[in-house]
Amino acid sequence: MLLDCKNLTKRFGGLIAVNDVSFNVARGEIFGLMGPNGAGKTTLFRLISGVYPPSSGTVIFNGKNITGFKPSAACASGVVSTHQIVRPFREMTVFDNVRVGAEFGRKDPKHNVTEVVNEILTFTGLAPQTHVVAKNLTLPSRKRLEVARALAANPDLLLLDEVGAGLNPTETSGMMDLIRQIRERSVTIIMVEHVMKAIMGVSDRIMVLNYGQQIALGTPAEVAQDPQVIEAYLGKQFAK
After folding, report:
1. What values do phi and psi take at 56, rounded to 5?
2. Three-class SS of residue 66?
């Protein structure tokens, strides 16, 4: 296993946002994370990537205890996360945005930064927009830029937080294709996505949270038929 999370809990005062969640992710896996709004998905991401320290529990990554690491230290270890709301450096070009990831992530001694950036731009389909200022990009391109900047940091584990949000069906399908291609680069992926068809179609396994607790874990087919999942999304009247 590349990632092993044990009994993760995060409290904000009297609110328990993540409650005793345990799961693991195999190297090379696409692991989906689902749940209604407020279920704790983004908070769980932030516990793994170091934005929040857990109130209790441990995060073991690649055999190393990274519990409570700051985001920079987590990134240096190989854990990189995108943002649910894209946050490019608006006044910088696409090239320079991706260069930030390459400069501050784990450097590959076999390649220089310019080579890394150009390769990532080509891979993500952004090469024609290399010199475009980020604030002038369309939403689909800003979404790809967010992914490109994260990839430039050379992750072993990539946390994708709703990269399909706001995209139309054709754009979402293209993003899912990109995610599959990222996995082929030996990058393990955990993704949050509200488009059910998209996450079901790309994930090897899916975990479902509700009110901070794990209510299901299994293949997409198993999760889709789980009564607790159906109740969480559709209500008790639909659960058998």
Report:
1. -160, 165
2. coil
Helix runs in 124-168, H state only? 139-152
pLDDT in tens, the chain (240 residues): 899 999 999 999 989 999 999 999 999 999 999 988 889 999 999 999 999 999 999 999 999 999 989 999 999 999 999 988 888 899 999 999 999 999 888 777 767 899 999 999 999 999 999 999 999 999 999 999 999 999 999 999 999 998 888 889 999 999 999 999 999 999 999 999 888 888 999 999 999 999 999 999 999 999 988 888 888 775 655 455
Query: Helix 139-152 to helix 169-183 angle, to the nearest 10 degrees?
Result: 10
For residue 180 the two structure tokens come to 């599959």
Task: Please state, in angstroms and rounded to a whole number, the distance separating the CA atoms of residues 108 and 201.
Answer: 32
CB 187 within 8 A of CB 109: no
> Which residues are within 8 A (CB) of 75 and not within 5 positions of it... i.e. 6 or more apart?
49, 104, 105, 106, 153, 155
CA 189/CA 151 separation, integer angstroms: 11
- Going from the C-alpha of 110 to that of each of 41, 124, 182, the distances in angstroms are 36, 21, 20
Per-domain residue ranges of the chain: 1-78+195-240
Cβ(185)–Cβ(208) below 8 Å: no
- If one counts every other C-beta atom within 10 angstroms of the C-beta of residue 119, the result is 16
Instruction: Tell me which fold the domain 1-78+195-240 belongs to.
Output: Rossmann fold (3.40.50)
